[in-house]
Amino acid sequence: MECTITLANESTSNASFTWQADSDPPGAAFDRSSGSIAPGKSQTVHVVADLGCPVTFHFRDRRHVAEQQMVMNSNCLPGSS
Questions:
Q1: Where is this region: Disordered (predicted)?
Q2: CB 72 within 8 A of CB 57
Q3: Predicted TM-score of the model (pTM)
Q4: Is residue 32 packed enough to be buried (19+ CB in 10 Å), middle (13-18) or exposed (0-12)?
Q5: Is 70:4 a contact under the CB 8 Å cutoff?
């Protein structure tokens, strides 16, 4: 599975979303494994995962205890496990 995920930080946020990526199950390849998004901005992350479905991609900001995640069932279709 290959897909592009858009991460966003709300314009009302008062802090950057400084994230690190991982997957569950582990093994996904991200074109960037970390980044920082200013309030009101967004970034795209390209992911390649040769994993069984479902797979969850996590983007965590441990400093601000925040997370964005996407559960994929197959072919980059968001869904639930």
A1: 16-37
A2: yes
A3: 0.78
A4: exposed
A5: no
- Dihedral sign of CA atoms 17, 1, 72, 51 in order: negative
Note the pLDDT tens digit of each residue in 34-65. Answer: 999 999 999 999 998 887 778 889 999 988 77
Which residue is it, tokens 């996407």?
70
Three-state SS for 42?
A: strand
Strands of 29-30's sheet in order across: 2-8, 42-48, 29-30
Place of tokens 């009302």: 12
Contact between 56 and 69 under an 8 Å Cβ cutoff? The reply is: yes
